[in-house]
Amino acid sequence: MSDNEDKPQRERKPLGLKRSVDAGEVKQTFSHGRTNKVVVEVKRRRVLGKPGAPEAAAPPPPPPPPAAVAPPPPPPPAAPRKSVPAGETPQERVARLQREAEEDRLRMAEENRRREEEEKLRALEEEKRRAEENRAQEKRAEEEAAAPPAPEAAPAAPEAPVAEPAAGPEGDATAAPSPPAPRRFTPVERPEAKRADTPKETKKVPDRSDRKAGAGKISERENRRGKLTVNRALNEDEGARARSLAALKRAREKERRAHYSGQSQSREKQVRDVVVPEAITVQELANRMAEKGADLVKSLFNMGMMVTVNQTIDQDTAELLVEEFGHNITRVSESDVDIDTSEDQDPEETLKPRPPVVTIMGHVDHGKTSLLDALRGANVVKGEAGGITQHIGAYQITTKNKDKITFLDTPGHAAFTQMRQRGANVTDIVILVVAADDGIMPQTIEAINHTKAAGVPMIVAINKCDKPEANPQKIRERLLEHEVVVEAMSGDVQDVEVSAKTGAGLDELIEKILLQAELMELKANPDRLADATVIEAKLDKGRGPVATVLVNRGTLKVGDVFVAGTQSGRVRALIDDRGQQIKQAGPATPVEVLGLGGVPQAGDSLTVVENEQRAREVASFRQQRETEKRTTLAPTNFDTMFSSLKSSVIEYPVVVKADVQGSVEAIVTALHNLSNDEIKVRVLNAGVGAITESDVTLAAASKAPIIGFNVRPNANARQQIERHKTRMMYYDVIYHLTADVAKEMAGIWGPERIEHVVGRAEVKQVFPAGKRDKAAGLLVLEGIIQKGFHARLTRDDVIVSATTVASLRRFKDDVDEVRAGLECGVVLADTNDIKPGDMLEVFTVEERERTL
């Protein structure tokens, strides 16, 4: 027999209309005075029983436990009004009222917070009570379902609590019924689900109706939790007005802020070790202390120092700030950050012989570069404009005996003083070139002074001995005037007669150089990080910043990280004096270095460091120090600034761009030497490389010419030049540049005015002349008084007016001049301020062309 046949047929009931839903209307209240009416439907409870059994009445709702929820506490009594003190002033009354208002505000805030906490506690207790009731009902339902039914009660419906009508206020049964209890599904076990022959109770597998009943129970719980019911809407314990979503958000934000503020107050301040150099800005110190810059400025203000966050303070002031904020200070000096290789001495056993470094110095056109050309077998003179050297050239030659000598060729023009001084400082031996037909000249004397200041030995090369008018002996005698005693004159300075044109005496010169180097025992350590000196630097269009350096010690290799002055970089390539790329350069080797971050200054030290971080740190420190030096030279107060604006000195602004750093130095120095007390050169910008758009913009804004020395503008700069009509001045010889600038400065300055006094007279009487003018009766004391001459009227040796003689009369006749000892009458132009006793001085003005 199938399962369907085993199941009893359910009794079919006739169809009919029956009210299964109770409807009601609830008014909802929201924030900001908004309301809404909602229709609430409550379905009747459905009781599942045995087939054919009549429906049971709904069970009555469980009675609420007494005193489950405490009634809301009564509002706290209002604070008593304080008595107004007698004789209270208006200010005291305002302060008292403000204080009372603040106390009332704090009291109300405390009451609101306590009320919110009590509401939360009541809501939690209510939820807990409801959960316990639900669990108790479910347990009772499970126990009733598990209990076996009585035999006599089989045909009857299962026991179910009958809902008794609640008594009204008068106790009658016709009063309004209470809201129905939540629906509960009680699983009913069918008797046919058990077998008679089952010896013991087995685990019952729920059928489809049981699963439906379980699913209905779960969905009913979800619906009861999320749907607004009449019971929930009319429940007075939850309050007549629900809190809005915005109020809940505000409460949560308040709790979060209180939580974090409590944490921040309890957090301990972290003590830091602050590294403070000899000079540091306020903002940098604040960053290292992890404090606010405004707090440091406030502390300095309390100390009596009016500073901003960008100003620099010394180490002692920084220490006071660090200690005031509770941190630990660690003092460092410049030696801890910067690199100083002067005290780094190599051990004696690591030193090896190195080639000598020889610098050729002397007056312009005495044959220095020609002598070097003859030594190295090249022709450098053709590459220099005007046949004079304007750059420091570094070359290395190899002698017949395979010995190497490094030569530095310095310019001899007066403008290149710094180049010659730099060459004397990095050299081992100086060759002083003197022309036998010219003698001792100003730059020759300057080279001697540089050599003595550097403390290096000197070899005198008397050049141009092939000329008929050459007189080497006269040169030796003239050198005695400058305390240079050659060996031929019983001294210790070697001298040799050479001719760069014929090559005579060159071998003897090389022998003397090697002999001097052997006596000096020149050595260096090649097995260490390189240390070099920047001889020259420039900005190449295709290769970028390029520096010509002379390695002092160590070995400079491709890939080394280095610091050169305020610039850092990595060696990308090394190029020798013949244009060949090499992998490394040993001591006393001149090379061109590619890979710099910018153009360094000529004379800077190049030092190889261990990593890029160290290189950037040192370069940044040096840049900061250079910035501080520039800012200290700037005007620091308004009086200095306005006094400079009121200055009567005429300025000649220029923008200078050159091919190498040494030329920039020489040009700027030469231009400053042209300045005097009445007119001066103002260099707006001086740099290395091609003329760019920024240079043209600066020159156009200042109405200044651009001086280009061996450089030209790029394409964009040319367009700017045409647009702004900027004046360009191109040169390749420095003394042409200085001569033209001197002429222009003289033109701007104007011709020189020279006064010649021709006569003096005394005012004896003043009388009217015409309607507005006054005439002065004069007695000529010196010289002559002539019509049309410049005149200066003085009273008690104080100039009253500067004018001209408009009219001159002798008695009633107009005359051109009146000589000393005679009387006359004059009318002065543009002045009537004449009194008896004044002195009249007549003079002429001569204009002459100025020269710088």
TrEMBL record:
Residues 1-235, 250-270 are annotated as: Disordered. GTP binds at residues 362-369, 409-413, 463-466. Keywords: Cytoplasm, GTP-binding, Initiation factor, Nucleotide-binding, Protein biosynthesis. Residues 1-25, 90-143, 186-225 have a biased composition (Basic and acidic residues). It is found in: Cytoplasm. Belongs to the TRAFAC class translation factor GTPase superfamily. Classic translation factor GTPase family. IF-2 subfamily. NCBIfam families: IF-2, small_GTP. This is Translation initiation factor IF-2. It comes from Alteraurantiacibacter palmitatis. The lineage of its organism: Bacteria, Pseudomonadati, Pseudomonadota, Alphaproteobacteria, Sphingomonadales. The gene is infB.
